[in-house]
Amino acid sequence: MNKIVEFIFLFSLIASVLAACGNNETDGEQKEITIGYFPNINHVAGMVAEEKNLYAETLPDGTKVNYQYFPDGSAFMTALETGEIEGGLVGPGPAMNHFVSGAKVNIVAAGSTGGTVIMARNNAGIETPDDLAGKTFISPRVGCTHDVQFEAQMKEEYNLTSDRVNGEMKHVTGKPATYHSMFTSGKIDAATVPEPWASVIEAEGSGEVLIDTSEVAWGESLPAAVFVTSQDLTKNNPELVQHIVDGHKKATEFIQENPEEAKTIAIDKINEITDQKLSKSVIDNAWKRIDFTYNIEADVLQDFSNASYDLAFLKEKPDLKGLVDKSFIE
């Protein structure tokens, strides 16, 4: 009988060890997460959270936090939908476009507002937005936040559209960190630019501001970055989502209370990711165009998404009901 009892005990012990090794959760707690963001100044909350290890203060003890950096919103959203990351910062354009296409995602906080600037290359013959007819402009991605802001304004105020819809402006895409060199080489004439790359162009003297942030469509009200996670997490593991959002809120509050240290973190992190060292003066200039906040307004997103539909980036008129979940920041 003693041998039987010993056998049962040993079998149970082995089974429990195997169960613990077979997944990333213990007693319902996920022990490893990955957060994503871009090397843009609108995403400084991600950089600060990583550098100051702020998620360790809000997640259960022992949770490992990894970080992944993305070049554009499409790559980020694909990683989120496939479970490669648990959440992070992305532009509202990709988040909304994927949502209306059927992706099960939630925006649970904002990351920042502002920071989009329309720049014109020196000697491109562009004095006013009317001069953009026949010119080549660049954005990070087709239908990204900055692209929609630019094209919506051009259509509404200047009756100009891109060649994507048989319009007068030629559209190309590329990484914002390369825009200065593309201005210098003459490959592009204008750009819809997220900071700090607009300030880089200004500092290097390859282009000038055509439309500043305050005058760009939804320039100061539209989130430049939103914090996104999956509906699977918000529904089935709201405690984890709350821990993550609390860490994001700590990072945002740190930026608000310690702007100079946050700027240093941004300079170092952008250099690490892009191998481009930005000057303090560039960051100072870019900082003036951005408001770091985690508050989010669904009405602004719906208005922006309607414009995306009007520009034919979306095939159906969007209904964003269910996209924004403010319960984690209230």
Structure, described:
InterPro entries: ABC_SsuA_sub-bd (IPR010067), NrtA/CpmA_ABC-bd_dom (IPR044527). One of its GO terms (molecular function) is ATPase-coupled transmembrane transporter activity. It is found in: Cell inner membrane; Periplasm. Strand 8, helix 6 and strand 9 (170-173) form a beta-alpha-beta unit. With 330 residues, the chain is of the alpha/beta class. The chain folds into two domains: 33-115 and 222-328, D-Maltodextrin-Binding Protein, domain 2; 116-215, Periplasmic binding protein-like II (D-Maltodextrin-Binding Protein, domain 2), CATH 3.40.190. It has helices at 2-21, 44-51, 55-58, 73-81, 92-100, 145-158, 179-185, 197-204, 231-236, 238-257, 259-274, 280-287, 298-310, and strands at residues 25-26, 29-30, 32-37, 64-69, 87-90, 105-114, 116-121, 136-139, 170-173, 190-194, 207-211, 223-230, 290-291. The strands form three sheets. It has a six-stranded mixed β-sheet, sandwiched between helices. The model is unreliable at 1-27 (pLDDT under 50). Helix 2 (44-51) packs across helix 10 and helix 2 packs across helix 11 (259-274). It starts with a helix and ends in a 20-residue tail after the last helix. The chain contains 13 helices and 13 strands.
